[in-house]
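S1.2 Input.
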Amino acid sequence: MTINPLIVSGIALVGSAVGLLAWSADEYYQQGLELVERDLKEKLRRLRMSTKRLRKWLVAWTVAVLATLVAFILAGAISLGILFAVLMCCGPWYVIRRMAEKRQQQIEDQLADAMVSLSSAIRAGLSLGQSLQILADQCPKPISQEFQQMVGEYQMGKPLERVLQEAKERLKSENFALFAAAMEASRQSGGRLNETVERIAHSVLELQRLERKIISETAEARTSSLYMALAPVAVLAMYYFFLDPTNTERLFTTVPGQLMLCASLVLNILSYVWARAILNSDI
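S1.3 Output.
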């Protein structure tokens, strides 16, 4: 089996260019890596996931992205290679961000019921620490995990004010911040905490009712936006397999075709994200 020297020299030149680029941009790469690591750490901590090996995973993913880009370049599809490299960079970050937002939304939905339970426990004569312990034991996940951490830190001797402050910074929830402020104010002034918490819980429940109403009324539009985003893929597959395979194949084998594919994919993704942002309820 003979090896084409042009292919060998091409691989060597591409590898040398990638190595030279990595060496010259090492400082910027480290700065970007630290920025991404800091952002992902905050989201992973909100998901209660370990961040010990995050730097190693980021470096390995960078190598995978570069390898994919080189493979596309050698295959003569540099435009598609750049697009796939960008998607590989943004995809995991988007998934983790969505997971963190979903968990935070679950906490928001469970917070009002937790406030009602806390108010009932305080009215029954239990202390604030005992009431938090009941919430940690009886509330569903994921909010029970947050109360368990708060109770554990409080029992280890950390002041309640600091426990609440750290929980506010960790959860980044306006409703929980209001709940924590009521607890702090009640402890300092000696007010009736159960009545304050009941009023806050009523307000949160009313906001959640409005949000659910908006979500139900925009459900059809969100489904339509998903179908519209998937429609170009279905049309492309139909042309490739049934209507005009020869000309459709040129979209993947020629540079102008690849550029058109990349542009259409980017615009399609942007339109879907834009539609979701418009339909997202924010009260």
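S1.4 Remarks. The mean pLDDT is 76.
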